[in-house]
Specification:
single chain, 522 residues, mainly beta, nine-stranded antiparallel beta sheet, eight-stranded antiparallel beta sheet, 6 helices, 35 strands, 11% helix, elongated
Length: 522
């Protein structure tokens, strides 16, 4: 007969088995799965400048962006941003999301990007996106029944209706150019900024101490830049006898906006991209020390109409003799104001440079503007080519005829210019030539200058490079605002509407100076 095992002996057996299992490498934990780690909540920012009060949703998180434009997400999640009843395209959540990410484009000028910028900036409570975009508390509830499609032809009507619902005026809708200018100035430079179609003019004169009329040259080119920054440059106009060639080369842009050309030996080139990414300016001195060149390029777009010309323009020009028909009386600089209506009719008046007397009277003409941005007017007595920028506030013109050539930059003025528009860092390229009737070799020269303006028109500046003996650092100047243009002691400065390009003219000591200044990303 078998003995019944006692409860006590069973306990001993269980303990023994447990010890045996531990001794053999076993563990109670082997049969228990590791606890699931708590997901790490990450933070990103939605930015034109940081946008607060914008709705967002992911699979695990939701809410509105905070005062710094921050939203929460988990690694790998998609996020949808919304403004009331308007839901923007979803995008993989990341540390920064911009409207360019929403529409999966590298072009800030994409219609969806531009219109998204416009409505967000329009709804900014203090109408100053420089300090961030603050949407009103409860804006998503207020606009819950309002839908907008930034990619639709009827967006303007939808947006103005939304502004009215939000208690604002339809007139508060920010202009496309203004919206792009703010967005561009807040973004670091990137290679994609160069992609597109450009129009460029290069104006060449002798260097200081030389007076060869053969160094008086001009070149007008069109550039097509691919997403890989491969440039096809096609010459449209050159001095008679110079070949109208086509070249292909690569370019790059660094974090300061400086542009380099990889396939060219151009040690004397200083080239920069403006804050709004629509203007390239440069100074170049050839290696033989005979020529120096001032250049400007503007980014182009399609879809223009003559009404894009409407507004007050300031036209600043430099003129020189031409190499093949030299006449020293053709040196000089000048400035005009030009009021253009929506039909392209313009009234032009000469402006007085500091310490100079302007001619009285006016000239009238009518401009045409085609879909590609090419500008013309009836009765033009020069061989010329003239285009308007995609921002609609810069016209770049080259013209020439027997005896002279000119380089003209026309800048559409802000409706409410102020000294605060100057605030920021600027790179200035200055070209000096003898004044009218004088071919003194000492009259040629140049400066490349870095300028820093405060919001009162005060600036400090220093030479980066110069033809002068004295290399100046930490100089100061103070600007005034007169009739829509800025003036110094001897200079007249005009600025474009998007506030990233200035052109300067002056006459002093028998010399004339013409400069281009581009604002740099903060």
């Amino acid at each position: 007969m078998m003995k019944t095992q006692s409860k006590k002996s069973l306990i001993y057996l269980a303990v023994g088995l447990s010890i045996t299992m531990v001794g053999c490498g076993g563990s109670d934990n082997d049969s228990t799965p590791d606890p699931t780690p708590t997901p790490v909540v990450l933070s990103g920012v939605f930015s034109d400048s940081p946008v607060s009060g914008l709705g967002f949703e992911t699979a695990s998180q939701s809410g509105v962006t905070d005062a710094e434009g921050m939203f929460d997400y988990l690694e790998g999640e998609e996020v949808v941003f919304f403004l009331g009843g308007t839901r923007f395209p979803s995008v993989t959540a990341q540390s920064e999301v911009t409207p360019m990410d929403l529409y999966q484009t590298e072009l800030a000028s994409d219609i969806g990007v531009v219109n998204t910028l416009r409505i967000l900036q329009s709804l900014d409570q203090d109408h100053n996106p420089e300090n961030g975009i603050q949407l009103a508390e409860g804006i998503n509830e207020i606009l819950a029944g309002t839908e907008m499609d930034p990619q639709a032809p009827q967006f303007e009507q939808q947006a103005t209706a939304a502004l009215v619902v939000a208690g604002m005026s339809a007139d508060d809708l920010v202009d496309s150019n203004e919206a792009l200018a703010h967005f561009g100035q807040g973004r670091p430079y990137q290679l994609a900024d160069l992609t597109g179609r450009w129009h460029s003019v290069f104006f060449t004169v002798p260097v200081m101490g030389t007076a060869s009329q053969n160094s008086l040259n001009y070149t007008v080119e069109s550039w097509d830049v691919t997403e890989q920054a491969l440039v096809t440059s096609t010459a449209l106009i050159k001095n008679p006898g110079r070949e109208l060639d086509t070249e292909t080369f690569s370019i790059n842009v660094d974090e300061k906006g400086r542009i380099t050309l990889f396939d060219e030996d151009l040690a004397g080139l200083d080239m920069g991209l403006s804050a709004n990414k629509d203007v390239i300016a440069n100074y170049f001195a050839d290696e033989d020390g005979l020529e120096q060149e001032l250049g400007l390029a503007i980014k182009l777009s399609n879809g223009h109409s003559v009404s894009d010309l409407e507004g007050l323009w300031h036209n600043l020009s430099i003129e020189t003799p031409v190499a093949d028909n030299f006449n020293p009386t053709e040196f000089g600089v000048w400035a005009d104001s030009m009021q253009v209506d929506a039909q392209g009719h313009a009234v032009i008046k000469e402006m007085a440079l500091p310490n100079q007397q302007a001619q009285t009277g006016s000239e009238e003409l009518t401009f045409t503007l085609d879909d590609t941005g090419k500008v013309a007017f009836d009765g033009d007595d020069e061989t010329n080519v003239m285009y308007i920028s995609r921002s609609n506030d810069v016209i770049l013109r080259h013209g020439h005829k027997a005896g002279r050539a000119n380089f003209v930059v026309m800048l559409k003025s802000s409706l409410t210019p102020s000294l605060a528009d100057l605030q920021g860092s600027w790179r200035l390229y200055n070209l000096q030539v003898p004044n009218e009737g004088d071919m003194d070799p000492a009259g040629f020269g140049y400066w490349i200058v870095d300028l820093s303006f405060d919001d009162k028109g005060n600036a400090t500046w220093s030479h980066i490079a110069t033809s002068e003996d004295a290399f100046l650092t930490e100089q100061s100047m103070t600007m005034s605002l007169n009739n829509g243009v800025f003036t110094g002691d001897e200079d007249l400065w005009a600025m474009n509407q998007t506030k990233d390009l200035m052109v300067v003219t002056s006459i002093y000591d028998g010399k004339a100076a013409y400069a281009i200044a581009i604002k740099q990303v903060r």
